[in-house]
Design goal:
The protein is built from 8 helices and 4 strands, in the order βαβααααββααα. With about 220 residues, the protein is mainly α. Among the domains are: about 70-140; about 155-220.
């Protein structure tokens, strides 16, 4: 069971009719102060009483926050993931519209040139959205590996030492850094070369040909 964020219940759509607390809820920074419905009762007293049999209600209330995730951070990472996802869907739809009306490859338009640069950056936006989603998932389940059964601190290996974990992180970082350099160097070389009419094999079905070349709107260079 995951805590449910209590959203403001506003009977009118106008922002000026929102209460001060509801306006704070919509603020991307101050939203960390938003009340989380049911969080004060998680985990339940029955669960805490089994782990702390001698604790009274006041002591259990002080212990309970140790079992909460970092809600303000999760709020930001979750909304970052959703915002970037919606933005990329909008970018894709706009690209389809521009292609449909024959303007996607019209580099004489300043708007189209800027939009093409935006398309170049969309893989980075997708990666940021993916990482924000992983932060939301992994931080949102803390401090549990198995909810109310096994905590992350209890599941940590006592065999693997910190230097060994650090060495693995450094090794993976170096490997991915080399792969990133190889990817971007190849990517830049292909982009600078650009599509050519010779790249389209004449005996292939028309539906297999590059859309830009088939439409005759490819960028020459």
């Amino acid at each position: 069971m995951k805590p449910e964020i209590c959203l403001p219940r506003n009977p009118t759509p106008q922002l000026q009719h929102l209460t001060k607390r509801e306006k704070r809820t919509l603020h991307p920074i101050q939203a960390g102060e938003t009340e989380v419905k049911g969080l004060a009762e998680l985990p339940p007293d029955e669960f805490l009483s089994r782990r702390y049999p001698g604790a009274n209600a006041e002591e259990l209330a002080k212990i309970r926050p140790q079992y909460w995730p970092n809600v303000p951070v999760l709020f930001q990472t979750y909304h970052l993931m959703i915002s970037l996802g919606v933005a990329m869907v909008g970018i894709a739809l706009l690209a389809c519209v521009l292609w449909w009306i024959g303007k996607l490859w019209d580099t004489r338009s300043r708007f189209v040139r800027l939009f093409l640069w935006l398309l170049v950056l969309t893989p980075l936006l997708a990666e940021i959205a993916t990482q924000a989603g992983w932060f939301t998932t992994e931080m949102g389940r803390q401090p549990w590996v198995v909810y109310q059964v096994l905590k992350t601190s209890d599941a940590a290996s006592v065999v693997v030492k910190p230097p060994e974990a650090l060495g693995s992180i450094i090794l993976f970082s170096v490997v991915y850094l080399l792969l990133s350099v190889l990817f971007f160097s190849s990517f830049i070389r292909i982009v600078r070369k650009g599509p050519t009419t010779e790249a389209v094999v004449s005996d292939l079905p028309e539906t297999w040909q590059l859309l830009s070349l088939r439409a005759g709107r490819h960028t020459k260079g």
